[in-house]
Amino acid sequence: MAAALEFQQVSKTYPGSDEPAIQSLSFEVPAGDICVLVGPSGCGKTTTMRMVNRMVSITSGEILLDGRSVLDRKAYELRREIGYTIQQIGLFPHETVAANIATVPKLLGWPKDRIRERVHALLDMFSLPQDMAGRYPAQLSGGQRQRVGVARALASDPSIMLMDEPFGAIDPITRGRLQNEFLRLQGELRKTIVFVTHDIDEAIKMGDRIAVLKKGGVLAQYATPAELLLAPVDAFVEDFVGADRALKRLALLRVRDVDLWKAPRVRPGDPVTQAQEQLADSDLPYSLLIDADGKPLGWLSDRDLAGERVPDEAGTAATPRLDQDSVLRDALAELLEEDTQYGPVVDERGTVIGVLSIELIAQFLASKDPRELDPPERAGVEP
User: Fold this and answer.
1) Which of these, 95, 103, 343, 357, is most buried using a 10 Å CB contact count?
2) Which pLDDT value is given to residue 244?
């Protein structure tokens, strides 16, 4: 089960320093939430996180896990109860993937059969092939190594995880995919997570709550992403969040959270009259051609529907195909890159579940409550 985390007036002063690295830090992380620590370089983000598993000692104050002080048990016992992953991943190069994932369960004395089952389950969870268990870290891509690193942190099913810029050393495309995958898993696992990043966009995307730290380890604001964007407490937070706060709101919702528009869906060979009937009752002015599995093939224009039967091919490609777990900001970028008004949204199987449009995103930016969006007005705009 996830553990609640609480900082009570926590301070840290390193030996030989006159100034504290962390000053009277107090905040609470409810069980199952992701708390992101963000701020400029040298503000104490990593120090704060590493005090949770006592890799950095506490000078004063208390850190509580489910109401129990982290000082009440031996450091090595505490660390075995806490998942930990870092930017450099830190896999053991001489150990196989399976051995890396099994590190903490072995230390805890799990039976071999239980460890083997856990390794196989985690490989499936992170969409890694089972034969990867026998490979070594040098034989993996950067994204695969990162997945293995997070799998290792989850191996003992810890109540809390510490993640120090876990996606910082990966290319932007892989980074976005890993963020989406991790958030999808978090929706199922609901772990308590302390996540360090220097990137405010990543903080807004990943966090249920965000702690903005100033230099010297002073807590400037602790809030949900929405509160942070809509009501920064002072000029420091406002400057740190950035002038494009309105656009950053697009990272507050995922595509699946929006009431997507419905598109008439037809298959090759369907009667054109059927497509026209669906079109009359649709949110969109164009029909979407799909295959037998419900995957999008393209948009059908009036010219495509001039015959008696729906053609095998559409005149306009159904791109981009938007992932239901992408944040609206990323979906908007994909729509703009393709210079299109509409994008079919697909689930993990590639099946169409709805359509996102530029107009719907514009309504989000203008809405006080982004989940209450008006239905679209039909317009003859090319997709």
Assistant:
1) 343
2) 77
